[in-house]
Amino acid sequence: MFPGSCLCFVRRPCLIQQGPYGTLYSNIDVGAGTRWLLSGGDFSFGTAHSASYTTFWNIKAAQPLALPDPTWGPNLNFIGTNTAGTPRTGACAWVTESVVNLYPPELHTAQSSISLR
User: Fold this and answer.
1) Confidence of residue 41 (pLDDT cuts 50, 70, 90)
2) 37 pLDDT exceeds 80?
3) How far apart are CA 47 and CA 79, in angstroms?
4) Are 31 and 61 in contact (CB under 8 A)?
């Protein structure tokens, strides 16, 4: 786990529209958790801050993490992350699952070890 005093994931809409989707953030301690999601940049490409199928897996903080505004992005996954707020619903719904003792705690390492066999 990567501890921090108050980390945030900075997302830029112009990079989202032209870049990869399905990003995995796994086993990260964002510290206080007061600004864990922060966006900025050129919004001429659209207002989504995250591409589809981005997964936040086992993100820890000192307090429940506020879910972003529903316009933040479609088809997001918040798994094993203590979140507060209402997830996006409808055709591009978000998946939120609070899991105690999430296994594996570090999803990227687990997936990599399987694919390297």
Assistant:
1) low
2) yes
3) 24
4) yes
Question: Would you say the C-alpha torsion 9, 63, 29, 88 has a positive or negative sign?
Answer: negative
What's the pTM? 0.80
Q: Which residues contact 87 (CB under 8 A, 6 or more apart)?
A: 67, 78, 93, 94, 95, 96
Of 86, 99, 94, 10, which Cα lies nearest the Cα of 57?
99
From residue 12, give the alpha-carbon distance in Å to each of 73, 83, 94, 104. 12, 22, 20, 29
Instruction: Quickly list DSSP for the chain.
Output: -B--SB--EEE-HHHHHHS----EEEEEE-BT-SSSEEE-S-GGG-S-SS-TT-EEEEEE-SSPEEPPPGGG-SS-EEES--EES----STT--EEE--TT-SSS-HHHHHHHHHT-
